[in-house]
Amino acid sequence: MTQRVPDKPVITVLAAPGEALPPGLDSLAEMAALRQAWDAESLRATLPGAHVLCVTDFRTGALRQAWPCADRLQWIHATSAGVDAVLIAEVRTSDVLLTNARGIFDRPIAEYVLGQIIAFAKDFHRNWELQQRQEWVHRDTERVQGKRALVVGAGAIGREIARLARAVGLTVEGIARSERSADPDFEAVYAAHDLCARLPDADFVIVAAPLTQTTRGLFDAVALRCMKRTARLINIGRGPIVVTDALVQALQEGWIAGAALDVFEEEPLPENHPLWRAPNTVVSAHMAGDFLGWREALIEQFIEQFRRWRRGEPLHNLVDKGRGYVGATKE
Amino acid sequence: MTQRVPDKPVITVLAAPGEALPPGLDSLAEMAALRQAWDAESLRATLPGAHVLCVTDFRTGALRQAWPCADRLQWIHATSAGVDAVLIAEVRTSDVLLTNARGIFDRPIAEYVLGQIIAFAKDFHRNWELQQRQEWVHRDTERVQGKRALVVGAGAIGREIARLARAVGLTVEGIARSERSADPDFEAVYAAHDLCARLPDADFVIVAAPLTQTTRGLFDAVALRCMKRTARLINIGRGPIVVTDALVQALQEGWIAGAALDVFEEEPLPENHPLWRAPNTVVSAHMAGDFLGWREALIEQFIEQFRRWRRGEPLHNLVDKGRGYVGATKE
Fold this sequence. Notes:
The structure is a homodimer. Chain A is an alpha/beta fold. The first copy, chain A, has helices at residues 40-46, 62-66, 89-93, 106-121, 124-132, 156-167, 195-198, 221-226, 244-252, 294-310, and strands at 10-14, 33-37, 52-55, 75-78, 97-99, 148-152, 171-176, 188-191, 204-207, 232-235, 258-261, 281-283, 319-320, 325-326. Chain A is 27% helix and 17% strand. In chain A, a hairpin with a 4-residue loop joins strand 13 and strand 14. The longest helix of chain A has 17 residues, at 294-310.
């Protein structure tokens, strides 16, 4: 943070096309000049002279095209946990700071994951199907207590998932970049290269990792075949961490017993995509963490960060641009 | 327990029509003479001389008709948590002991309830409907943390529900026969006559009470109107605790925001019953507690009780026949 912070900095907000200025941001109007962009063209027009870029669209590709116009940029804030869309090579090699929304979505996502675990165990999906046909069919279902979960990604979200799952009696292991001993939130944390060794023990496998060069395609046919045939996959991380074709095959051929998917390689999930109708599969629209009030919470977090930045204080949630996520020591 | 226990007691097992002798019970063959009944007629034939009656059918009406044939009966064990089907007036006024399956279903039922709470909060039902139509519709959903639950019935099952719900961040109050201070499992425990005063605070209302003269029809139109319009009702107790017509009206007219129902006044729920299609309602086939292995667990529990009884030791889970459930002091 050696760069000078101007008296009235310029903030460009890059939102999804058609999206209004996030609620509450106008409270910065006295402290900063606000600009808005929705695509590459408007970003090119609003980046010159901007000191801060706040990206609220986690699917944007506009930054790469407009990057040459970033002549004063000191800091990019992404209002999402995953920063894959903004962490382009140009950003990685620049001295522009990158922060994310770590913390906001952790608990809601963990609640969603726990709900999917219980829904699988208690066969809620079949209950709904039977109810549509007005059929009364008693079944015995699984207990949750004593089941084993493997959380791939031991960051803030993965940890919150582990805490909730353990609170209701699951045994939870984690997979992180490297092995850790005596972790407070996991039974054990193994290194990424141990993934296939740990998968056969898990009843529930939860993808909570950031999308990086290491995690892209991590769940390929080999990994999916390492899972128990009775296990379920829950993906709340990013779609491309799982190889879609392999997942479809795994579900259709019964390599695994089901999947709960909130994220996809292509979003929205296209019509007639086989995942819509894959056996024992539930789909949601990238919304696991989006609780009522999340937009306001994200903007509050950005405003607090902005105040720190303006006072010259260190920013929270600084992304390690080499790794692609906020490091544990920055928590 | 002043009655003499014979050397080789006679046990009659009253099962549902067509149901085989429960697995594992044959291990008692050396210690007892085993008989089987499925209806009033076969019960009349097998009760004379029987010292123990083990009832595995929680819907049976056979006992009332066959009761005059119970000439030696000392003890009835019900392999269910609810004993309403066997606690007929004749049993209540006799000196026959009555025990139940307290403990076996607590945790699985609590898991089911927690799953329904999260499914409501995260709108899993709508996800599933949208998936049938292959529609991608992002919504913001509720947080579970910070929500308020009211558990009606503070017995073993109600307590386990409270423990799990609190473990994931809900605030949980209980309704019991009488008010209790400083309860370890509930934020507060109120008396039954406070029900309508406590209902307006609850986001989730969980019926976990036994069916007794006090609880029959407890959730009538008045009580349902005391609930918040955004609240959901979860019934895992007994169907007749809720007045079905009032519940249907409450759901259809939006007095409450939804219901998860595992028990009904009439079971199986008849075809074309309005509850199958009531708005925001999910139905399951009286199976919330029935985990894989429950039959074996129930018989293990009965065999353990039988050994205690034969040795002249006090039985566990003795039902207070005046109240209709196992008292707290007997835990």
